[in-house]
Design a protein that fits this description.
The complex is a heterodimer of chains A (357) and B (342). With 357 residues, chain A is an alpha+beta fold. In chain A, the strands form six sheets. In chain A, strands 3, 4, 6, 7 and 8 form a five-stranded antiparallel β-sheet that branches. In chain A, strand 11 and strand 12 form a beta hairpin. The radius of gyration of chain A is 25 Å and the shape is elongated. Chain A starts with a helix and ends in a 5-residue tail after the last helix. Chain B has 342 residues and is mainly alpha-helical. In chain B, 70% of the residues lie in helices and 0% in strands. In chain B, helix 5 packs parallel to helix 7, helix 6 packs antiparallel against helix 7 and helix 12 runs parallel beside helix 14. The longest helix of chain B has 27 residues.
Chain lengths: 357, 342
């Protein structure tokens, strides 16, 4: 990381500037300025405006005639590079917060770059609304069912979308916007930065995991990233909705040794989940590789952190109880498993309180 | 002496009987779902059937033991009966049991009968969820010689709206990856289904599969073009960084590099490194650096002449500094640092 940042600092300013343009005036409902692509200075470029929470606010062509100085700055034969964008200002945007507004120039060949003084900051009116922020944040709401709404519905934020399990009659693993998630029933407070572990897990997150290959030759993921990779693996293998408290994990394709019928390859086994058992399965990706799901007990007490390409090997980490020198994550994971005895609200409360044991 | 030998023989027979009885119960009470069911107790004690060495294969996954014929016949008869006369819940349970028996391995005539029952259920069940469950039990327990049956049943189910387009092409992807069937490959290439691509890429990241595809002569120009053209696109604003989309992009890139590398006998890392010489969305390159080949790609580029001015690395650095205040970008930066070891 340090390496990247250092490199970024000295290289950032040496990059060729292709876009030119400035935001000159801005309010919640309109933004104006000028922009051009210096590679093709006579082109009229497009302008796209985005809010920092992934809201598209509007777009327009930069075609308004401006003073000759603009044309000179672009280096072309005309100065019709001005723009004025009417910004979308829907009720859901009025969250009472200051937002960075990013203004992009769209040039030839899908060239995309921010204007020179973008982003600008605009404060929106309205009352503060909660939104997930960090990848790994836990979101929840009332269950959209009469009487048992308090049982709750739970999902996880991947930095841009909510990943959740829904009973839709199709693959139950879904990726939705948070507006979609919250529109369905009353939202609960977001659990920001839950106490997810910080260790690294090495595992197979494919639909085809052949254990006969070197298990060390697998990607190393941070715990939260591993949970997302497991979600993708379940999505790919396929999952159906099931209303009971057990996890029926999606299992990758594997070889089966069969004394009667000969060795055979078995297709991946579809998973069966409800919303909370899905989250618990994702958590299981932080204690063992999905290709060895629940098979080797020793995985529960130590994770090999090793990447064959690393210049330095990562040390093996003990995630067992703290009294035995571990990080304490495994007992917390077990504590979360207890939540399945009751409802999603129990899992939510356990995550909220840091997985009490 | 004789009586002592008799006693030893008796003890051995008794022990064997108890062992067989225990294992019979173990089989009787195990359906496909129950085999994989994980409870808090199982995690706490590691004493589920899953973790008993007698049930574990080389993979560490459950290996079904052959059951005595009489017991299996009883199980089969009960499941078949439930599938016809049971309640909806019983039918679902019977489907799970049949899937387990099929996956565990059964004699040809039993196998044919059970698969026939599943196919009939798909075609006649009035409840969509029962038909879906039967369909997936059928497809996921199939063998290469049954590919045509699978396609026909999927076509029927799709025509009756028992499954969605995603379900249909997703299943074709699974079957193609398992059996390398040309008809299925053609169907995949004719579809533009993005979910099918997610499934296919989730297989192609395994380089062994790419080698098998190449040995089978399936990596044609058309297939390469199909995979290349199904490149995932990051959604939302240019700074919007979904970790799920990053994982999916990385799997596409690694999968494509595996099949391209297998066909032309070149290192897949070289194929990935080439992507850094093109003008692309920096999020795509960050996803590659954060993934399984991140360190190798980074090392290859950085150690090449002019590596420090590689346009891809420059755009990644620029993105990381421009959007360093966005949480999902921070997660990605952390994962890149971890993956590349720098």
């Amino acid at each position: 990381m340090k390496h990247f940042v250092t490199m970024a600092i000295w290289l950032f300013f040496s990059l060729p500037v292709i876009a030119k343009g400035y935001v000159e005036q801005y309010t919640t409902q309109r933004i104006s300025g000028w922009a051009c692509d210096v590679r093709y200075p006579d082109d009229n470029v497009a302008i796209h405006v985005w809010r920092d929470d992934n809201k598209f606010l509007g777009g327009v062509g930069a075609v308004i005639n401006r003073e000759p100085a603009v044309g000179a700055a672009c280096g072309g034969t005309h100065s019709a590079h001005g723009f004025s964008v009417d910004l979308y200002f829907g009720e859901e945007l009025k969250d009472g917060k200051s937002h960075k507004i990013h203004v992009y120039l769209i040039g030839r060949d899908n060239f995309v770059e921010q204007l020179n003084n973008s982003p600008v900051t605009i404060t929106y009116p309205g009352s503060i609304q909660e939104k997930p922020y960090w990848a790994g944040d836990v979101v929840a709401r009332d269950l959209a069912w009469p009487v048992i709404g308090g049982a709750g519905h739970i999902g996880i934020w991947d930095g841009a979308f909510v990943i959740e399990v829904l009973d839709t009659g199709a693959n139950s693993v879904q990726k939705n916007s948070y507006e979609n998630f919250y529109a369905r029933s009353k939202a609960w407070p977001v659990l920001y930065s839950p106490a997810w572990p910080t260790h690294v897990i090495q595992g197979c997150f494919a639909s085809y995991c052949d254990s006969r290959t070197d298990p060390n030759n697998q990607p190393s993921y941070s715990a939260v990233y591993a949970m997302v990779a497991r979600a993708n693996q379940i999505l790919a293998i396929g999952a159906d909705y099931r209303w009971d408290k057990y996890i029926y994990p999606a299992v990758p394709r594997y070889y089966q040794q069969d004394p009667l019928f000969g060795d055979q390859i078995l297709a991946p086994l579809r998973g069966k989940y409800r919303c909370d058992t899905f989250i618990l399965d994702l958590m299981s990706a932080t204690v063992n590789s999905p290709s060895f799901l629940y098979a080797y007990s020793e995985f529960a007490y130590g994770i090999v952190q090793y990447n064959p390409f690393h210049s330095k090997r990562l040390a093996k980490v003990n995630i067992g109880p703290t009294q035995y020198g571990g990080t304490g994550w495994y007992p917390k994971y077990v504590s979360a498993m207890e939540a399945t005895v009751i409802t999603p609200v129990t899992l939510y409360n356990r995550i909220k309180s840091g997985f009490p044991q | 002496m004789k009586s002592r030998n008799g006693l030893i023989f008796f003890i051995l027979v008794a022990a064997l009987s108890i062992y067989l009885l225990f294992n019979s119960f173990n089989f009787r009470n195990t359906s496909a779902q129950e085999t994989n069911k994980v409870t808090r107790d199982s995690v706490l004690t590691n004493k589920t059937g899953l973790n008993q060495p007698a049930l574990m294969g080389e993979t560490g996954l459950p290996v079904a033991k052959p059951a005595p014929d009489s017991l299996l016949e009883t199980e089969v008869a009960a499941a078949r009966n439930q599938l016809v006369t049971g309640s909806d819940e019983h039918k679902l349970h019977a489907i799970e049991k049949i899937e387990y028996i099929l996956r565990a391995g059964a004699r040809a005539e039993i196998r044919a009968a059970l698969r026939g029952d599943l196919a009939t259920t798909v075609n006649v069940a009035s409840e969509r969820n029962i038909a879906r469950a039967a369909l997936f039990a059928f497809t996921r327990s199939s063998r290469s010689e049954e590919n045509r049956d699978v396609i026909e049943l999927l076509d029927n189910a799709s025509a009756k709206h028992i499954i969605t387009n995603d379900d249909y092409y997703g299943e074709i992807s699974h079957q193609f990856a398992a059996f390398l069937n040309r008809e299925m490959m053609t169907k995949l290439m004719q579809s533009e289904n993005s979910y099918a691509s997610i499934v296919l890429n989730n297989y192609l990241i395994n380089s062994d599969l790419a080698e098998k595809l190449n040995e089978s002569g399936l990596i044609t120009q058309e297939f390469l073009s199909h995979v290349l053209n199904s490149k995932p696109v990051f959604s939302g604003a240019p700074f919007n960084l979904s970790a799920l989309e990053a994982v999916q992009f990385e799997e596409w890139a690694s999968g494509y590099s595996n099949i391209y590398g297998a066909k032309y006998n070149i290192e897949n890392v070289g194929v990935l490194a080439q992507m850094f010489n093109q003008k692309v969305d920096p999020r795509e390159l960050m996803a590659i650096l954060a993934g399984r080949n991140g360190a190798a790609v980074y090392t290859m580029i950085a150690s090449s002449p002019g590596g420090w001015s590689n346009p891809g690395l420059l755009s990644v650095n620029r993105f990381l500094s421009e959007y360093s205040d966005i949480p999902s970008v921070q997660l990605m930066a952390q994962q890149i640092a971890l993956s590349t070891g720098r």
